[in-house]
Amino acid sequence: MSIEITAKRLEALGNSSRLEIFRLLVKAGRDGLPVGTVQERTGIARSTLSHHLHRLIAVGLVTQERQGTVLICRADYDVMDETVGFLVSECCIGTGGR
């Protein structure tokens, strides 16, 4: 994974509202949450929430799936693991340990 991709993902999570949304989706598990539930739990206005979700989707941290009239949002755990793994993969190399 490139440093540019990692930087974009971390930049997206650098906003407190997006971080709150992402943490909520991570806690929700693989079933995810409907957009309406995310809005209720965060109190973020729908238009603002839509903006934040699109940003998280653009960098691959969140996916959306339409189920009838409901949009289900899910954290992408593989992308999350890849991003965190990138940060810790070279931890303390050359120093003999943490």
Automatic annotation (TrEMBL):
Q: Name one Pfam family in it.
A: HTH_20
**In the record, what terms sit under GO molecular function?**
DNA binding; DNA-binding transcription factor activity
UniProt cross-references to InterPro entries, sorted A to Z: ArsR-like_HTH, HTH_ArsR_DNA-bd_dom, Metal_resp_trans_reg, WH-like_DNA-bd_sf, WH_DNA-bd_sf
**Is the keyword Cell inner membrane in the record?**
no
Keywords attached to this entry: DNA-binding, Transcription, Transcription regulation
Looking at the keywords, is Transcription present?
A: yes
Report domain HTH arsR-type positions.
1-95
Task: Please report the name of this protein according to its UniProt entry.
Answer: DNA-binding transcriptional ArsR family regulator
Q: Which organism is it from?
A: Limibacillus halophilus
